[in-house]
Amino acid sequence: MYDVCIIGAGVVGMNIARELSRYKLRVCVLEKEADVSCGCSKANSGIVHGGYSDESGSLKAELCVAGNRLYQQLDAELCFGYRQTGSMVLAFREEDVAKLEKLYNQGLRNGVQGLSVISGEQAREMEPHLSREVKAALYCENAGVTSPYEFVIALAENAVENGVELRLNTEVTAIQPFDGWFTIVTSAGELVARTVVNAAGVYSDAIASMIGIDDFRITPRRGQYLLLDKDQNYLVKSVIFQVPTELGKGILVTTTYHGNLMIGPNAEDIGDKADVGTDEETIRRIVLAARKSVPGFDMKKALTSFAGNRPIANRTDFVIEASKVKGFINLIGIDSPGLTASPAIALKVVDILEMAGLELVKKSSFQPCRQPIIRKKSADFNGRIDSPDPENHIICRCEQVTEAEIIDSLHRGIPVQSLDAVKLRTRAGMGKCQGAFCGSRVRQLLARELNIPLEEVTQRGKRSSVLAQRAKRGDYMNL
Ligand SMILES: Cc1cc2nc3c(=O)[nH]c(=O)nc-3n(C[C@H](O)[C@H](O)[C@H](O)COP(=O)(O)OP(=O)(O)OC[C@H]3O[C@@H](n4cnc5c(N)ncnc54)[C@H](O)[C@@H]3O)c2cc1C
After folding, report:
1. Are residues 475 and 330 part of one domain?
2. 275 and 251, same structural domain?
3. What digits encode the pLDDT tens for the residues 29-45?
């Protein structure tokens, strides 16, 4: 029996779980996949937005600004990777400059600090590799970049350390209210909870309909990306947007938290919520659009493509509310800026739960801090691929990942059993060779540490067979 059952271990569900772990409560998180952060919290731009893009007075605007302000402190506690870089929205035509002014004024109304409209020359002084066609830009000092999946992993590890129960490979299939409680039926058995939080991303409409709330429909809006080698990151320091369109914030060019150049995402409404494939034609259009902002990147340095699906609801704003079924809280349509807003969303949900009658008594044992998995390598780091010392034994050459880091990632209270799970935690396989060198070495380490046969180590857990179609690298490298 639980006080709170959270459905979905994305950035929203895990922020809520970690926040609730401050209190004397029995909390569980149910996740259908084999790891946390398998939904759109894994595949997004990783931008901590300033908060000027959303309409004043909306929940999106309020919680984006509030969430942005929490990142620095959260990163200090949880060490997941966050850097304030600033962002620019570029205008290429006179009519775009008026749009910048509109965003600027909206930002001021939303309480965003550090905003200014600058000329094309000023923008190029700050970012010398911007196109000569840039006429003006909206500069936002407070925007930044984060490692989105490491954020979720850090929240999950910390929540589990503070007593939250995380059940992976557990798909919710039905919810039955009874006498002020809920029976939650899952692919791994039943459990009972006093309150339920629906944080199921693109599937949150399906979860709501399990208790008879059929007002919501989520359409997945796919965004494809291209990731380039770290040697291209000299091109931009801040996040470079173009003026937004009907479909969203448009194509951006950014350096990721770990230093790769990244371009994307497009926006396409699709039918299949699980389809995170990429295709050559879309990548070609993304490359053309990104070159409008930053012409100089070298497509021969492209490493891989990926995609994520935004949960677009039939309401424009975030839905974060106590539903008509007492004790059942809905979070629906948490699309961008949901990553930025997630820490503030969690605080709002805790308030809603308290108003619904949940008693919040603080735990003196709450431990706010979590150590990083990836260790900064000092100048005298003596890593070798044949070192007998795990601290110096390099498993992944491209990203300099050591045996000690991989072993550490396996023993943090969350089952880590696939190559992808290790990759998200340590970056083994994320470099130039995309795992060609380290894949088999990580597999051997996993088999040894988990004491299982080599062939039982999968790429991404139980659903290994469901591989997304990816655009062929050879086809876009010559663009
Ligand atoms: C292309 C793209 C770019 C974006 N860029 C940004 C950005 O730069 N900055 C920003 O602030 N935001 C951005 N966002 C938005 C942000 O990624 C989302 O708002 C955020 O990740 C939503 O998190 P979530 O936890 O609600 O959803 P998810 O991460 O999707 O988590 C939901 C979880 O619920 C689980 N689940 C679903 N159904 C069930 C079930 N029946 N039983 C058990 N578990 C279930 C899923 O497996 C999943 O793990 C972007 C989104 C996309 C797609």
Report:
1. no
2. yes
3. 999 999 999 999 999 99
